[in-house]
């Protein structure tokens, strides 16, 4: 299981409180992980600190044939 799965949804909101930095990480070889970003961003803005920094990070850029492009 991965932390982004719905089964962990109730637990992850606790991590937003008091955080000064949030990293949302997706795999560029997995379109579904990218498509879930809007829901995580929405949750961050609902439950997180208004002063926290939000970073979105794409991983696995070393792999051939990414499903997500920067263009």
What does this structure look like?
The protein is built from three helices and two strands, in the order αβααβ. The relative contact order is 0.25. The chain has one domain. With 71 residues, it is an alpha+beta fold.
Q: Classify the secondary structure makeup into a structural class.
A: alpha+beta
Q: Which consecutive residue ranges, at least 5 long each, have pLDDT under 50?
A: none
**What is the total number of structural domains?**
1
Number of helices: 3
| Strand order in space, largest sheet | 1-2
- Describe the main β-sheet briefly: 2 strands, parallel
The end-to-end span amounts to 31 Å
Q: How do the SSEs run, as a string of H and E?
A: HEHHE
Beta content comes to 15-25%
Number of strands: 2
- Average pLDDT for all residues: 76
Question: What general form does the structure show?
Answer: elongated
**Cα radius of gyration in angstroms:** 13 Å
Helix content: 25-40%
Q: What topology does this entry show?
A:
Blueprint: H1 9-16, E1 21-27, H2 31-35, H3 37-47, E2 53-59
Parallel strand pairs: 1-2
Descriptive key words:
two-stranded parallel sheet, 20% strand, elongated, 71 residues, 34% helix, alpha+beta
Summarize the structure.
Helix content is 34%, strand content 20%. The protein is α+β, with helices and mostly antiparallel strands and 71 residues long.
């Amino acid at each position: 299981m991965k932390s982004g799965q719905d089964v962990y949804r109730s637990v992850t909101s606790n991590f937003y409180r008091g955080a000064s930095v949030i990293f949302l990480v997706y795999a560029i070889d997995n379109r579904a992980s990218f498509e879930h970003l809007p829901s995580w961003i929405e949750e961050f803005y609902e439950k997180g600190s208004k002063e926290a920094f939000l970073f979105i990070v794409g991983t696995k850029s070393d792999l051939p044939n990414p499903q997500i492009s920067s263009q």
